[in-house]
Amino acid sequence: MAAEHRQHNRHHGHSQGHHEEAAHHHGHSHAGEDMLSVEEALARVMASFAPLEPVEAALLECLGQTLAEDVTSPLSLPPLANSGMDGYALRGADIAGASADSPRRLPVVGIIAAGQMPERAVESGVAMRIMTGAPVPDGADTVVPFEETDEVQRKREGRPLDEVAVFAEMPVGANVRPAGEDIRPGQLVLEAGTVIRAAEVGVLASLGLNRARVIRRPVVSVLATGDELETAGSALSGGRIYDSNSFSVAASVAACGGVPRLLGIARDNLDDLHAKLSAAVDSDLVITSAGVSKGDYDIVKDVLEQRGAMNFWSVRMRPAKPLAFGHLRGNDGGKDVPLLGLPGNPVSAMVAFEMFARPAIHAMLGRRVRPRPAVDGVLTGPIRNYDGRRVYARVEVERRDGVYYATPTGPQGSNILTSMSRANGLAICPEDLPVKQAGEQVRIIMLDWNEEVEL
Predict the structure, then answer these.
(1) Neighbouring-strand partners of residue 72
(2) Which domains does the chain have, with CATH numbers?
(3) pLDDT tens digits for 353-362?
């Protein structure tokens, strides 16, 4: 069938990218084709997405989600003035002028551990031994660290800690953390719309909260199509190939903060396609791969159009020219569900996901939709543009002597999935340039920016 022919060719060297190169060399191009710009296609897609409804979730489950409401503090942090050091709590006036040659000696009248309340106040002329985080007793206004006293010497010599010699003058307030220094009662601590990271999890826990109201994670159904596909982990029979798109797309959904739901493989028959799509209508977004090209007559397009309002576009980009977007009708009058149809070539599917699905998922999560960070760098190899489309070339980005260098990761055919695995960026050749040569400046969208990449 058409889908089998398409996907078989895709993985055996006759990729979309190879066909495009062949068309160029034979004098054909897409220049006369009515294509949307990436920005136009994205605007049409994004018009259908808004933040989902809020839910209450356990604190650790909120990581990466967006707060649905402001968080104000019910308490002070710290609740009491406490010590920032292990040392001695005392009155700063009592150690004025102290030095190694002229120490101030004070009787030690108690010890305060973290989590304990002082049993007495500190009067003039005495000190209390105190641990980091322990409440500062009334009367004390300064904490002298052990290192500025004879604590270590006394312990080494086996002398009791009933007296302390202070060898340095300290400003009043030294090493004392005031009550409410971080947060005051009633203070707005986190605003609605804040994306919860590890730091925000800690802040919420410090307020005594073990749950938070957050924007719900979108459930994204992922469906591959084609008789030629086989699920990873099973044995291959003649002419079949493993389905990679379901897994790369589902992994991309999870990396964005969504909840992927693998629907498996829809075979090239009406009943199976209808059944798989019926199982997807309770999700927040459906992502399919393959069967969306304008020149593709297989039944995927037909079924999508029968089950909803679909648009099939050509986007002025490579890879990932064919794109479908619309809505599936819900079962029994249920809500319509957005559907994004990605190309079948594996690299095309991943690049189209980056450009269109990732922003849509972030919008549903209530995040401010921002592009990935981009840098300007220098190409080490050429990027060729055969037909006036914006080229997103897979590159490995390294920083040397303060300059970013972008090296193409090998053949750029849209069937070469390993070139995507070697890439940490996409270097852009604009629509109006036939080539970006080695040594030229290039704009690079960073796909990975982490500890493993020196940037």
Answers:
(1) 188
(2) 2-52+217-364 (3.40.980.10), 55-77+182-215 (3.90.105.10), 82-177 (2.170.190.11), 374-446 (2.40.340.10)
(3) 999 999 999 9
